[in-house]
Amino acid sequence: MNENEREDRSAEGGSGSGSGVGWHTRALTRIKQGDSKSAAAPSSFDPGASDLVFLLCVQSKGTGDGFACALVNIARSVVDNDDTITVGAGEGKDEEEEHNSEPGVVQSHHLRHVVAVDAFGRVLELNKEDYEVFEREMRAVKELPKPQEFMGQWRVKRAITCLPFYKVDIFPGGRSSSSKRVEEGEEIEDKVTATVYGWNANTDELERETVGRTRLPGSLQRLIGLGMEGRDGYNRTIERDEEVIGKVMALGGFK
């Protein structure tokens, strides 16, 4: 095991607290218990071009667009004396902004708010701890070297062929900072893409050494695992919310 792989192992969170594993079940449970109000109707879910944070698609014959999961950084409108939360787009700010502080007057704030969209097209509220795990893994994936072989793919060693490609796109909409370029004197963050052929939750051995590694980087292994939770229980015979997914895919450059 080389130095890079030892670092990957030391960063693993396992399946317990702080690993993010089970985020999808937790989000669905909050909705069932009435603790979450972030399951938006298609008409109210209208993110802007800069709001997409993360997108995972599973690409193979017969999977359609292969949409698995997305994270979207949207604005949440909160009214202090009404427990209703409306999820929608906007120019939300990182800090609360009071629009009116006069006594007896309803105060409204706009907060930046990250939600997940699963393979069914459901808009789910992530708790702070789960998003921070996603963010940590995205930040690490952004720092990975890009394979020069196999059209830039990481290829997991498997006994069978014709397996899916797992395509991860990380966008500048999150708080993670990396992969920046300068255009006309202004520093601009780029989208980062990583593609894994034959990903599997139970193995990370690569077909051959790739950029000095014999195993898939732990951060990428874990990030895809988290994203694939968004496909739990899904198959193509089940109806999904095409309007919500269509909006997300359009932001990711898919028409």
β-strand amount = 25-35%
Q: Give, in order, the helices and strands.
A: HHEEEEEHEEEEEEEHH
Q: State the secondary-structure class.
A: alpha+beta
Q: Taking all residues together, what is the mean pLDDT?
A: 78
Terminal Cα separation, in Å?
42 Å
Let me know the largest β-sheet: 8 strands, mixed
Radius of gyration: 19 Å
Total number of beta strands = 12
- Tally the helices: 5
Query: What ranges have pLDDT less than 50 throughout 5 or more consecutive residues?
Result: 77-110, 175-187
Produce a short descriptive summary.
The protein is of the alpha+beta class. It is 21% helix and 28% strand. Strands 1, 2, 3, 4, 5, 6, 7 and 10 form an eight-stranded mixed β-sheet that branches. Strands 8-9 form a two-stranded antiparallel sheet.
Give your account of this protein's structure:
21% of the residues lie in helices and 28% in strands. The protein is of the alpha+beta class and 255 residues long. Strands 1, 2, 3, 4, 5, 6, 7 and 10 form an 8-stranded mixed sheet that branches. The protein has a two-stranded antiparallel ribbon with strand order 8-9. Strands 11-12 form a two-stranded antiparallel ribbon. A hairpin with a 2-residue loop joins β8 (180-183) and β9 (186-189). α3 crosses α4. It is globular. The model is unreliable at 77-110 and 175-187 (pLDDT under 50).
